[in-house]
Design a protein that fits this description.
This protein has helices at residues 37-48, 62-75, 105-113, 135-147, 152-179, 204-232, 241-258, 267-270, 273-294, and strands at residues 24-30, 52-59, 89-93, 118-126, 129-134, 184-189, 194-198. By secondary structure, the chain is an alpha/beta fold. It folds into 2 domains: 24-93, no CATH class; 105-282, no CATH class. It is elongated and about 95 Å long.
């Protein structure tokens, strides 16, 4: 069984192996820009002496940490005649992120590779986001087109209305992320749902706004459609029937389902809006109380 230990060092720097008498690998993440060369050499020696056999150096001046560990290893043998199993391997990684940020091209590659069957739609980009569709969506659209071939106009409106719901929802997330200053990298659509790949929200308020973005976009379409349908009354909608049914009624149903607080829906985060509003209300009340007392 592999074990992982973390150790945040501060002055006076002193490292003690968490596994005395056992060889180990170390990941050095340097962030202290005031650290001296002597302090770096001291820590490197304390890493190598108890049995470090591989050091990955990243962060500030990663290459100097790599050199310090190499020199500490050389200092352990006066005539430099180490055995093969005592060598210390090192690597350094300057200007490289510790993890792939969600808005990076690397994160995009990882996301697409983790979902086999995705196809990129040419060079189409909206709000900076590339578009991807899953093969299940293409297969579903093809099957529905064949089934409804006897009425091609209804079929086209039916399929187009349904796809517009999926696209609008993800574009709603993308628009809010874009307006809040986050990078939007990709939007993906499947037969039943979609996803929007963007930077992770940096605070609770932004997370809530992003969660409501998809539903807000759906309702921005559904409410005008239902209003027009209400004004038309019970008369036949003709070819517009699929539009009213899907972009109106079904659209609202999907939005409500998506607001159910569950792990796979926006409702898990969206309803945090209520405590945020209560908190803002208390803050405004406290400000008024302070202002009234100061008069």
């Amino acid at each position: 069984m592999q074990r992982v230990f973390s150790n945040a060092l501060s002055r006076p720097y002193a490292f003690r192996s968490p596994v005395p008498g056992t060889e180990y690998a170390a990941w050095i993440i340097s962030h202290d820009r005031t650290q001296t060369a002597a302090e770096r050499d001291k820590i490197a020696a304390e890493l190598v002496s108890p049995g470090c056999r591989y050091a990955v150096c990243s962060g500030f001046e990663a290459s100097k940490w790599d050199d310090a560990v190499d020199l500490a290893f050389l200092d352990t043998y006066t005539e430099f005649m180490p055995t093969d199993d005592s060598f210390v391997m090192t690597s350094w990684h300057d200007q490289e992120p510790l993890i792939a940020p969600r808005g990076s091209s690397l994160a995009l590659d990882q996301t697409v590779k983790s979902r086999p069957g995705w196809i990129r739609i040419g060079r189409l980009r909206v709000l900076g986001a590339s578009f991807f569709v899953d093969r299940s969506l293409l297969v579903g659209v093809g099957i529905l087109s064949v089934i409804a071939i006897s009425s091609p106009i209804h079929s086209a409106l039916f399929i187009g209305s349904y796809l517009l719901i999926l696209v609008a929802h993800e574009l709603g997330h993308a628009y809010v992320a874009y307006r809040r200053g986050y990078e939007v990298d990709a939007i993906g659509l499947t037969l039943l749902h979609g996803w929007c790949l963007c930077d992770a929200p940096q605070n609770e308020r932004d997370a809530v706004f992003l969660a409501w973005g998809g539903v807000a976009a759906q309702l921005a379409i559904a409410l005008p459609v239902l209003s027009v349908a209400f004004l038309l009354g019970d008369r036949s909608w003709g070819y517009l029937t699929p539009v009213v049914v899907f972009l109106g009624y079904l659209n609202v149903v999907i939005a409500i389902i998506n607001l159910v607080p569950s792990d796979d829906s926006d409702g898990k985060v969206a309803w945090r809006l209520i405590p945020l509003l209560l908190q803002e209300r208390r803050r405004q009340r406290a400000k008024r109380d302070v202002f009234s007392k100061s008069r």
